[in-house]
Amino acid sequence: MRTVLMVAEKPSLAQSIAKILSKGSCTSRKGLNGACSVHEYNGNFQSQTVRFKMTSVCGHVMSLDFIGKYNNWDKVDPAELFSKAPTEKKEANPKLSMVKFLQVEARGCDYVVLWLDCDKEGENICFEVLDAIQPVMNKGIVREQSVFRAKFSSITDTDIWNAMNRLGEPNRNEALSVDARQELDLRIGCAFTRFQTKYFQGKYGNLDSSLISFGPCQTPTLGFCVERHDKIQSFKPETYWVLQAKVFKGKDTPLTLDWNRVRVFDREVGQMFVNLAKISKEAKVESVSKKEKVKQRPQALNTVEMLRVASSALGMGPQHTMQIAERLYTQGYISYPRTETTLYHENFDLKGTLKQQINNTIWAEEVKALLSTGINRPRKGNDAGDHPPITPMRSASEGELGYTTVIPWQGIPLEEALPACECGDTFTVEEIKLVEQQTSPPHYLTEAELITLMEKHGIGTDASIPVHINNICQRNYVTVENGRRLKPTNLGIVLVHGYYKIDAELVLPTIRSAVEKQLNLIAQGKANYQQVLQHTLEIFKRKFHYFVDSITSMDELMEVSFSPIAATGKPLSRCGKCHRFMKYIQAKPSRLHCSHCDETYSLPQNGAIKLYKELRCPLDDFELVLWTSGARGKSYPLCPYCFSHPPFRDMKKGMGCNECTHPTCQHSLNALGIGQCVECDSGILVLDPTSGPKWRMACNKCNVVVHFFEHAHKIQVAQESCDACDASLVAVDFNKTRTPLPDSETQHTGCVFCDPVFQDVVELKHATMRHSMHRGGGARRGGRGRGRGRRGNPKKPKDKMAALAAYFV
DNA sequence: GCAAGGTC
Fold first, then answer.
1. FRET partner for A748 with CA separation of 20 to 30 A, picked from A24, A63, A119, A794?
2. A740 CA vs B6 C1’ separation (Å)
């Protein structure tokens, strides 16, 4: 029997489609990656009985990146990213081993039916799937079609069966348009981001963003926020006057009347009206009209609307909202939360959905009332053909979800109760006056307004809108204020104003739609993929060069808001080249700057830096600094120069002295390393020479910290190693009065792990210990208890002279 | 370290 492999875009869809096509008779199992399931059943295909295997991917299988060496920011000129740098497709999520999973399932299959989402991304994923599986599928009869594409517009029985009965072929052009988009986004985004970041980070010390990113979606998103900021800034309040009249009838409370002219901007004119009105002592009702306020029935809920409502009514950010929605979905409270559809299918069981809520503690009464009076269907929306609108699936109590507050739906506010009055009624005028007021500026953009703007201009998709908003927050371009209003920071404002000065297209919302127009030509087969790609890249390459040449225009704005790097920070340690003090810049990314040499040296992030006893690196004469993770945490010295310029072949960027393989320096791994880490495979426990009297050694790779020899006044790592476990011996020196050693000895040299004298006085412990290291007497496991291939492990050479020879190459 | 697009 022949086998048909069918692939959907996500596991949930594979399941629903399989259920429909197998009429509920399929068997299901988990795939090897744990994320995707395979649903199998027998059925009819191309006039034969076949085995169907329905499975899915998880979105894109592959993602685009530059080949490795072009990811080095120091060695690659960003301009090369426009054409010279080759790109490659990498597995989008290596943890899912999607390619392997697809191949295992496709091996021996005769046909494939692609059930990916019916949009351009889905079409692109079709070919990612084909690239993975075609090599392992059965070679079919020549000229017989083996690749099919199912086109469906909703997940209903009719639609899915229609799609199955009218299979077509995947659309190469649509897929290519996505390939082009990916390459454009990558090359343009990375080139601008790297250039801006390096340029401004090298000049200003207090930018407070470690990454100054640029992108065709995030930058216009920021642009919207700054546009509103500019409106607020340029707003000039105007004074206006309002006529206010208070009238009353009998003993009723006085009523304030609105002026049908609303306001005047001229005081004289206003005063004239007051004078005119003051002539009358009575106010007569001339006509009575009643207005009914109507709010449109809502449409069925899609993702973007959910994000808007969550932001404005619940005060939740889009990213957070999606996380919560995801959880509610997997727990069965709501239907699939990512959908563009705002229309319930004709035969959608609204009543059934409502009945699920009949015992809900909060809205049971409303539900019952609705069920007895009948439901008005939601206002007609749009069927995007992806998933049904977001729908509650079962009732939940407050306790189940743990939420604390429910914000009541924004209803129409009750109108002020007006006293009943009829035409001809008269009121006595109590007071008429002219009130001075001022026009007020608009507010900062709310998140909900921003989402609307993005949707309107086609910036991002329902799934990526939260990511873009999150990006501009994380990059410190905007902050979220009360009421989820987005206020641009100085950095955000300067960037946008800078783009406006140099090339406004870089920040206008049209940047995305203009490119998409070109991409659509590829999708429609009206333009050649390579030509469009090269043409668009060429345009942006020119924009990039112009931007680089004009960067001083943006710099002029930066200067106003930020301080030059040389004027930032405080003197800390001496430069090894000029021997003048370098300044420590604490703002992220923290670094050292030598204004005389005009060089910046990066430092470890997250932690504190201080001078280390004015000791110097023997290699480059830079003064060492001491990095500390915090009080009682890990600390080690590092050389600011070596940290960015690894001195030895086996060292990488970002290493401190505790990883330095210098053969003789007293601060190096060679001098202070004791033995292999008790937790990780690659780390060495290194003595922290600054930790006394609560002595510690810390792993130079992971977070393990081991406390030992409390109150010893001196600890030294000896040249010799332990015969049993190969760890370096440690010489400990105690004070006469406080020594815990037998026979009041003050000194002892031995192995921390094996020496019997130390066994009784040393208690090894560390924060994240999994195995007990307490030396409760008894022999150590096989003498080399920590042994994980310790012997023969060259990480800490026994023979230091041999190591020396190895390092001087 | 970078984009934006899928989805878990």
1. A794
2. 63
Look up the protein residue whose alpha carbon has the minimum distance to the C1' of B2.
Answer: A190
Note the pLDDT tens digit of each residue in A418-437: 667 788 888 888 889 999 99
Mean pLDDT, all residues of chain A: 86
Catalytic residue list contains A70: no
Give residue-wise pLDDT tens across range A267-321.
Answer: 999 899 989 888 888 888 888 888 777 778 888 999 999 999 999 888 899 999 9
Tokens standing for residue A300: 């069925």
* A57 CA vs B6 C1’ separation (Å): 10
Alpha carbon A64 to chain centroid, angstroms: 18
A680 and A795 Cβ atoms separated by less than 8 Å: no
- Do the Cβ atoms of A261 and A272 come closer than 8 Å? no
Report helix, strand or coil for A386: coil
Provide the CA A791 to C1' B1 distance, Å, integer.
37
A402-411 pLDDT, tens digit each = 844 444 555 5
- Catalytic: which of A336, A344, A444, A601? A336
Q: Rounded to whole angstroms, how far apart are CA atoms A145 and A751? A: 72
Q: What residues have CB less than 8 Å from A804, skipping those under 6 apart?
A: A663, A664
Select from A349, A344, A347 the least CA-distant residue to A302.
Answer: A344
Q: What Å value separates CA A373 and C1' B2?
A: 57
Q: Which residue has its C-alpha nearest to nucleotide B4's C1'?
A: A185
pTM: 0.80
For A536-594, the pLDDT digits (tens) are 999 999 999 999 999 999 999 999 999 888 787 888 899 999 898 888 888 777 888 88
Closest CA to A25 of A4, A54, A45: A54
Q: What whole-number distance in Å separates Cα of residue A311 and Cα of residue A699?
A: 44
Alpha carbon distance A548, A79 (integer Å): 10
Which residue's CA lies closest to nucleotide B6 at its C1' atom? A59
> Is it the case that residue A772 has pLDDT exceeding 50?
no
Nucleotides of B under 7 A from a protein CB: 1-8
Nucleotide nearest to A192 (CA to C1'): B2
Which nucleotide does the CA of A193 lie closest to, via C1'?
B2
CA separation for the pair A265, A620 (Å, rounded): 73
A516 CA: nearest nucleotide by C1': B4
How far: A87 CA to B6 C1' (Å)? 19
Q: Give the tokens for residue A689.
A: 């020479």
Measure the N-to-C terminal CA separation of chain A; round to a whole number of Å.
65
